[in-house]
Write a structure and sequence with these properties.
Elements: H1 10-22, E1 30-39, E2 43-50, E3 55-60, H2 65-73, E4 80-83, H3 87-96
Parallel strand pairs: 1-4
Antiparallel strand pairs: 1-2, 2-3
Helix pairs in contact: 2-3
């Protein structure tokens, strides 16, 4: 986090994101799914963002198809899934949210996580 000019630890940021994600009252209609690195080039997780409200709604511990598919099955209200071209998320979207439209290759997180 020091490279970004933030005087807090990575763990503090993750803890706050998870806490804030639990406070979301309304179920998301449009989500963005992307991977992020716990450790650079070693261990990856999945971040899920509500694109309408521009807030993180969940952080999955891994980047596994099964975890992402299960999350989508628990959230049948999701209508739009924005993702990168990664086959993992395409497969998860097909299996976990057949009702949702699945655009890819457009900006997953409009405005970035800073807004």
């Amino acid at each position: 986090m020091h490279r970004l000019g933030l005087g807090i630890s990575d763990d503090t940021v993750l803890r706050q994101l998870k806490k804030r994600a639990q406070d979301i009252a309304e179920p998301p209609r449009a989500i963005g799914i992307d991977d992020w690195s716990w450790r650079k080039s070693q261990t990856y997780g999945t971040i899920i963002v509500d694109l309408e409200r521009r807030v993180v709604i969940d952080i999955l511990e891994d980047g596994d198809v099964v975890s992402c598919t299960n999350w989508l099955k628990r959230h049948p209200e999701v209508e739009v899934i924005s993702r990168d071209r990664c086959g993992l998320y395409a497969q998860s979207a097909r299996q976990g949210a057949p009702q949702g439209s699945r655009p890819s290759s457009w900006c997953n997180f409009p405005g970035g996580l800073r807004s």
